[in-house]
Every structure is written in structure tokens, then in C-alpha cells.
Amino acid sequence: MTETTDRLTECRDPVLRVVPAPADINSNGHIFGGWVLAQMDIAGGIVASREVQGPCATVAIEAMQFLAPILLRDIISVYAEVERVGRTSIAIRLDVIATRDRGEQEVRVTSGLFTFVALDDNHRPRPIERETRLA
Asked: Any idea where the HotDog ACOT-type domain is (predicted)?
């Protein structure tokens, strides 16, 4: 493991862990970027929904960076950390680590800041409860 991935993964459990399928491979032998974004959105949605105590929707993806390719047989772990909570929105930093070579190597493959908005019963933005924002 590299020092970078050690700091990312220590004392944290991944929100999502998944193995890409052969159908997720592009013509270069790497995983499609859209597949990776979908996994990140799923993981971010899990965290956002828990934090805002209800439904939410993705409204923005900021500062997305693809740092290294994801290969077939990699085990993908998505880590999440809340960066900020506003009146109706929450920003979550998502980091994706690929475990390769039967666990011998961990590679940080992408990172992004996803913003979600809390939704009411009519699917409109709703305020995030004060207790949630202070936690």
C-alpha cells in the first residue's frame, strides 16, 4: 500500500465495495468512467440520505479527477467524508481505491466532490434539520 492510500483508508470503512464485470470494460481494457461515477453516486447517496435523514438527490459533481484506470478484477472501494452541510444541501468527498494483485496493491483511482440536496415529500428542496447540520 502507498502512503496516500494508507491515509485515505485508515480508520474508515468503505461505504461501497464492488467488483466490475466484463461488461463494464471499454475498448482499452479499462472500466468505463460512467460506471465509476455511478458507483460514486450510489455511495454518496447512501451517506447523504443518512446525514439528512431522508431522501436526497445529486445536484452537482465538482472537481472530479480520474487519476488512474480501473482494471478488470480490481476490487473497488468507495470512501466518503462529509465536507460541508448547508441549509438544504450537503457536499460529500468521495474517494475510490482499487485493490489489485490479490490485495498486494492499492491505487487511488478517482476522487470527486458530490453535492446532494435534501428533498421533501413533493421532491422539492427542504431544509436540513439543525441537529443534523451541527453533528
From this structure: 10-122
**pLDDT, mean over the chain:** 90
Residue 116 pLDDT > 70? yes
Close Cβ partners of 124 (under 8 Å, ≥ 6 residues apart): none
Per-domain boundaries in the chain: 3-134
Q: How many CA atoms lie within 13 A of 64 on its CB side?
A: 12
Please, are residues 97 and 77 in contact by the beta-carbon 8 Å criterion? yes
CATH code of the domain made up of 3-134: 3.10.129.10
pLDDT of amino acid 3: 45
Q: How far apart are CA 92 and CA 115, in angstroms?
A: 6
- On the question of pLDDT at 77 being above 80, the answer is yes
Element (H, E) at 119: none
Least Cα distance to 76 among 51, 61, 94 occurs for 94
**Amino acid occupying residue 64:** M
Distances (CA, A) of 66 to 17, 30, 132: 18, 12, 31
Residues recorded for the chain: 135
